[in-house]
Amino acid sequence: PQQRRICSCDLAMGNTSCCQEESQPVPKEVIETQHACDDPKSSKSIQKPVEMAAIQVVTASQESQDTQVSKRCTHSGILNMPHFEVDADILRGIELEDSLRRLGKLWRESPLDLKIEDRTGLWEKSRPVQKYDVFLSHTWLTPGRWKVFSLLLQSGWKQMFAVWFFCISVVMTIGLLGWLPKPFLWRAGTLGFVTPTPFGPWMLATSFFSMILGLSVVPYMPAWCRKSSVCFLDVACIHQTDKDLMARGVYGLGGFLRQSAELRVLWSGPYLTRLWCVFELAAYHAANPAGKVTLSPIFVETGVLVMFLGAHAASLLVQIIMLTEVFGDSSLVVYFVGLLPTYIIIHLLRKIIRGKHNMIESLETFVLSDAQCRNDFDREFIQNAICAWYGSEKAFEDFVRHDLREELLGMASTTSIPLPYIGMVAASVVSSTFDCITSLFIGKAPVETIVTHLIGYTFASSLFWFFALLTLVIYLCDRWAFPLCKDWDHLTTLVIFLVLVASFYGGSIITTLACARSIWSALAWCVCTALVAAVLILRKRLVESRRIARTLRKDADLDGPDDRCP
Known about the structure:
alpha/beta; 58% helix; disordered N terminus; disordered C terminus
C-alpha cells in the first residue's frame, strides 16, 4: 500500500502549519515518537533515547525514492531533523536598510494579508548568504510601523543627525546673510541689550523637518556612509509560496539562528504569547551561548517619538507667546501655557511605560503552554526542541521568569534612554536658540551679547539643563506610570507636569539673571549645568557597567566550556 502525504504550509513564520502524513490502514512504515520531556522508561516501545530530544523511528521497509526526496515535508522527516542543521541551499539574507525602503513596506503587511502574486516576489528581495549579522525576531501581531521606526532610529541616528546638522548650518548661514524673511520683532535682554531685533522661527522649523528627512533617507544612503548589516527577516528569507521551501525554512529556523552573530528581539507586548517567538529566543540561547542577544523594546523608540513631537510643539508655542507678548512680562504664565503640550506627552509617556511594566510583570508568570500556536504539530515540534535544550519545560520557564526578566529590566529601562535619543528631543530647544542668535546678529547686537546668549541659553539652559529636566521627567513617568491612587490618572500626570514647569521656570530665571549680569556669570551657570548633566551620564554608565558585570559573572558561573548544542 502506498502512503499519501498532505503538505500544507501557511504563509508566514509563526503561523505555519506542518507537513502531515496520512496513511492507509496497513502502512509499510511504522513511526513511533517520544517527547523529549517524557521519561524514557515510561514508554515500552522506546528502547534507547538519543540525547534528550531524540525521536525514535523504526522503519519496516526501504523508503521509496520519492519519499526520500520529499522527506523534509513529512511529519516524521521534520521531527527527525537536527534542530540546528544548516540548510545552505535556502540560507538567504537581506540588508537591514533594504528592508526599510518604501516606508518599510516589507514590515507593514503580514504575508497572510498579501495576495498570492504579491507574495511571489518576496523571496527575490533576499540573496544567498553564508551567515547573518543579525537575526530579527518579532511578531506580526505588533503593527509594522512601530518596528520600522524603531529600526530606523536604531540604525540611522548618526545619519539623521548629519542631515540635521547640514540643514541647520545651511539655513542658519542663509539667515545670517539676511536672505530669509523675519516678520517678527524680539527683545533679548541679554547684558541689557533690549533693542528689538528681526526674528523668524526658521531654525525650529528646519530642525523638525530635517530630522524627519534624515530618517527617511537612511535606507537609501550609499554603502560607504552606513554600516552593512545582513539580516534574517522571515518574510523575505523564507519562501512564501513554495510549500517545500517554506517548510524547510520554517522548521530549519534553528540553522538560521546558529549562523547569526546577533539575535535582536523587537520586544512588544504580544511577543511571548507567540510560540514561534519563544522558539527563536530559546533556540538562540542554546545554539549560540556566547552570541549577542539584544533586547530592543519598541516602546523606547515610541516614547522618544512622543517626546520629540511634544518638544517641538512646546518650543513653537513658547516662541509664539513670547513674540506676541500676549501675557506681558509674566514669564511664569508664558512657560505654563507654552508647556501645555507636554501635559499630553507626559500622559502618553506614562501609558507607554505602563505597558512596559505590564510586559515585564508578565514574565514572572510565563507559562510555555500559554503561548499560542496555529496547530498541534508545531507545538509538539517546539516543545520537544525546548525540552532538548533546557532539560524540561519548567527549566525554560524558570529561565524566562528570572534570567530573561532580569536582562530585560536592565537593558530596557526607560530611565536610561540612549544619549542620541535625548539629543533628538533636545534638538528642538537648541535650534530655537539658534533663531535667537541669528536675530541678535541681524540686529547688530554686540559680540559679547551674542556670545553670552550662546553660552547661557544655548548650552546651559537648552542643552545641559534641558537634559537634566528630561531625565527627571522620564524618571517620574517611570516611577508613577500607574496612578498614585485609583481614578487619579490625570491628576498624577498633572503633578509631573507641574514639577516640569517649576523646574523649567527655575532654570529659566537663573539663566536670565546670569545672562543679564555678565558673560562670566553665564559661563559659571553653564559649568554648573554641565556638571549636573555629566553626573547623570556617569551614573547611567555606572549602572550599565554593573549590569554587564553581573551578566558576565552569571554566564561564567552557569555556562560550561562546551555548552553549544550540536
